Amino acid sequence: MIDEDLLQDITIYHKENDKYIRYPKLASVRNTSILNRNKTGVSSTDNALIRVFDTEGYNDTWKCQKGDVIVSKLVSDDIKVAAITELRKKYGKEYVYEVSSIDIFDFKNDDVKEINHVKIGAR
């Protein structure tokens, strides 16, 4: 199991139609400036690397896609109009990210199941 001391609460704001749905998750969050190249070959410069160790629930019990917003703490705000603007105004730019890329690392091996994760690049 991943050491829970390395994980923190985050809140994903996933946009569906015209509203945002909140998904609280535990994740590894690293503030960094990196050039990210995902499996599809797309490159982006990200300010955060976020790993959610729940691949089984992805797109079932929780969702995240490019353009969604992540707050690197547990929050319960309802979004009125513009998620990134509202949340950055309240929590600061250093805690609020826009998702720029997503890769799923599911190794299909029970011996390493604990390291399966959804890798989220964000800025």
Describe the model.
By secondary structure, the chain is mainly β. The protein is 7% helix and 46% strand. The protein has one helix and six strands. It has one helix at 83-91; strands spanning 8-16, 19-37, 43-52, 69-71, 96-105, 117-122. Strand 2 (19-37) and strand 3 form a beta hairpin. The longest helix is centred in the last third of the chain and has 9 residues, at 83-91. The two termini are 28 Å apart. The relative contact order is 0.25. The mean pLDDT is 90.
Give average pLDDT, whole number.
90
Helix/strand-derived category reads: mainly beta
What integer value in Å does the Rg equal?
Answer: 14 Å
| Low confidence ranges | none
- State the strand order across the main sheet: 1-2-3-6-5-4
Number of domains: 1
Sequence of secondary-structure elements: EEEEHEE
Can you tell me the overall shape? globular
- Proportion of beta-strand residues: over 45%
Count of discrete alpha- or pi-helical segments spanning 4 or more residues: 1
The total of beta strands comes to 6
Quote the distance from N terminus to C terminus.
Answer: 28 Å
Describe the main β-sheet briefly.
6 strands, antiparallel, barrel
Share of helix, binned: under 10%
